[in-house]
From TrEMBL:
GO MF, any single term: protein tyrosine kinase binding
Residue ranges of every copy of the Ig-like domain listed in the record: 50-131
Highest taxon in the source lineage: Eukaryota
Entry-linked PANTHER family: MICROFIBRIL-ASSOCIATED GLYCOPROTEIN 3 (PTHR11422:SF12), T-CELL SURFACE GLYCOPROTEIN CD4 (PTHR11422)
A Gene Ontology cellular-component term: external side of plasma membrane
Job of this protein: May function as a ligand for MHC class II (MHC-II) on antigen-presenting cells (APC), promoting APC activation/maturation and driving Th1 immune response.
Name assigned to this protein: Lymphocyte activation gene 3 protein
Homology family: Belongs to the LAG3 family.
UniProt cross-references to PROSITE patterns, sorted A to Z: IG_LIKE (PS50835)
Magnesium keyword on record: no
Gene that produces this protein: Lag3
Primary location group: membrane
Length: 158
């Protein structure tokens, strides 16, 4: 972790002993302990770091109309009770197009309208709610709905 962690030396004088991890990886989850010795006094604290990941299969880039799977996993130890998926804010219903099962979301025929931010929300048996966001990008044609476009002579056409 040597190249991914830092402590702000300037903050130490103010009593801030924060550890920064960037980027966080799945295997960084676990218990962290800090010990600070000042004169004869030693103080310590423990922090448990939980990690949530959203993965895409197949990996990017996603091509329009080719099936994809978004998977949401967390290091939380309790039993998973419910998974909800949100696309650009609203709740995504389970339907023929979108299926959610144990943290996964399948989109069988992704369209350009499926691009954007997807948020998975995991609720566990201990009532812990954890969420993460994934920015889905889709390669495809986002043109006019009709194949004929009329343009005035002398104008530009896109």
């Amino acid at each position: 972790m040597r190249h991914r962690v830092s402590v702000q030396d300037s903050a130490l004088r103010n009593g801030n002993f924060s550890l920064r991890i960037d980027p966080v990886r799945s295997d960084d989850a676990g218990l962290y302990e800090a010990q600070v010795a000042y004169n004869t006094e030693v103080q310590s604290c423990q922090v448990k770091l939980g990690v949530i990941t959203v993965t895409l299969s197949p990996p990017s880039p996603v091509v329009e109309n080719e099936p994809l799977l978004l998977n949401c996993n967390s290091s939380h130890q309790a039993s998973l009770v419910e998974t909800c998926w949100f696309h650009n804010r609203p709740l995504v219903p389970t339907s023929r197009t979108f299926c959610s099962l144990h943290g996964a979301l399948s989109i069988f025929r992704p369209a350009m309208s499926d691009a954007g931010f997807w948020r998975c929300q995991l609720r566990y048996s201990d009532n812990e709610i954890i969420s993460a966001t994934y920015n889905l990008q889709i390669l495809g044609f986002d043109g006019p709905s009709k194949p004929v476009v009329y343009v005035a002579a002398g104008s530009a056409a896109d």
